[in-house]
Amino acid sequence: MNIHEIKDFYLCGTLLIQGFRLVDQNRENGFTVFSFEDSDKLRKTISEYYLGKLRVDPSVYGLTLRQLKGLMHNGSLVSTQTMVTNNDYNNKKGAK
């Protein structure tokens, strides 16, 4: 499995909402590095994020970012199950 690492906290939150699963996260030189399974779909979504073409539900995005901060401070991936549940809810609503 190829891994795509990112340091952009807000991009990470967006990827979680879009249904991508966080594989790992760790601290490097004072930054948290988020790891996702690399794919063409992931790269396309990242490109759309930076081009401003993605839409997300703001309340779900805010909740996901708060959970992601908790994950960063706890250092455990256990919290991602809650984020996945929120992602599934958001994807069912059709937000993109």
What tags apply to this protein structure?
alpha+beta, 53% helix, 96 residues, single chain, 4 helices, globular, 3-stranded antiparallel β-sheet
> Which residue ranges are poorly predicted, with pLDDT under 50 across at least 5 consecutive positions?
none
List the helices and strands in order: EHEEHHH
The class by helix and strand makeup works out as: alpha+beta
Distance between the termini: 26 Å
Cα gyration radius (Å) = 12 Å
Shape: globular
Task: Tell me the fraction of residues in β-strands, as a range.
Answer: 15-25%
Rounded average pLDDT: 83
What is the percent of helical residues? Answer: 40-55%
Q: Say how many strands there are.
A: 3
Which strand order do you get reading across the main beta sheet?
1-3-2
How large is the count of helical segments? 4
* Count of individual domains: 1
Largest sheet: 3 strands, antiparallel
